[in-house]
Amino acid sequence: MKNYISQFNSEIITSSFGLLADGREVFKHKISNAYGYELSVSSYGAAITNLLIPVSDSEKIDVVLGFDSATDYENSFSLPNAPYLGAAVGLYAGRIDQASFELDGKIIQLDQNHGPHQLHGGFKNLSNQIWNFDSEKSNKQQLIFNIGTKLNSANYNAEVSVTVSYVLTDDNAVKVRFTATTDQPTAINLTQHSYFNLDGDGRSVLTQKLKVFSESYLETKPDGIPTGKIVPTINTALNFTEVQNCPRSIDNTFTLAQPLAAVLYSPSTKIKLTVFTNQPAVHIYVGGNCFNTLAGKNFANYGETS
């Protein structure tokens, strides 16, 4: 969508985002493009907190779920299921069966923070830490954050350095790029965990339209652990090769044969989100549920279909 040209393209705007329980201050950094799109990222979790899209000369819609303060982001990790709203996720995004993996003939036993399994990197993960904002390399088009982990953090067997860059282009694209280096071989799988609602905060996504450019998905057990089988989507509820309403419940990985992964469209706001990736799969999930415990931005109530 290219409309409502702004009269200026501002530099980075940095503001306080509040304090964590231990007194450390968190900052939020905002950039915008020539068409009035605004992208804000917090140093806590390197989380995308806001993505504002102009829909008229006087109105912008924030299309990502989030909170109004760093305090709420920190508190969200005490919910029954932490939603990881907008966060950079690692060291290993997704579930690791029995929280262990084999490397060079040795079993590496990790934190078990999801029943007997590990989810999204363990108890102390990249999403609930303060990242370093790289002010020298960041500019009015991109925000760059980095973080380092120590040996045995969440029981991982290596020291790891991770960098994420967020670029807001004048083609109205948000480009996310992760890089990582380790001092020895280890397991790593990084992702960006934003929840998109093209109708804005707190509204149901069930009338939004979804298409996934995939004909197969990764089979999982009832606890979400992959079986290792890739099965066709045809004649299943996971067939989104044709446009369907956004499902009420989904937490599945779809395999890809091309960079174009998925499209989400709102008939109400006319906003369309097109997702591209250089990875072999896309994971689709509905449900930034905050269990009526934490309010989202602007006091929004995030439920199972927000």
Main traits of this protein?
306 residues; mainly beta; 4-stranded antiparallel beta sheet; 2% helix; 38% strand; globular
Characterize this entry briefly.
The protein is mainly beta and 306 residues long. The chain is 2% helix and 38% strand.
- What coarse outline follows from CA principal-axis ratios? globular
Q: What does the largest sheet look like? A: 5 strands, antiparallel
**Rg from alpha-carbon coordinates:** 19 Å
In sequence order, what are the helices and strands, one letter per element?
A: EEEEEHEEEEEEEEEEEEEEEEEE
The number of helices is: 1
- Give the averaged pLDDT, no decimals: 94
Please provide the count of β strands: 23
Helix/strand-derived category reads mainly beta
Helix content: under 10%
Question: Distance between termini?
Answer: 23 Å
Low-confidence stretches: 1-9
Per DSSP, what share of the residues sits in E-state strands of 2 or more residues?
A: 35-45%
Give the spatial strand order of the biggest sheet: 1-2-3-4-5
Describe this structure in words.
The chain has 306 residues and is mainly beta. It has one helix at 70-75, and strands at 13-19, 25-32, 38-42, 48-54, 60-62, 87-89, 95-96, 100-103, 106-109, 118-119, 132-133, 142-149, 160-168, 174-182, 191-193, 209-212, 216-220, 226-232, 244-245, 251-255, 260-265, 272-276, 281-285. A 5-stranded antiparallel sheet has the order 1-2-3-4-5, with no helix packed on it. It is globular. Helix content is 2%, strand content 38%.
